[in-house]
Amino acid sequence: MHTVDLLHEALETAQQLGYGIRHEWLGTGGGACELTGRKWLFVDLAMNSQEQLEKVCEALQQDARLDCSKLSDGLSRWLQFRRAA
Question: N or C end of the chain, less CB within 10 A?
Answer without folding.
Answer: C
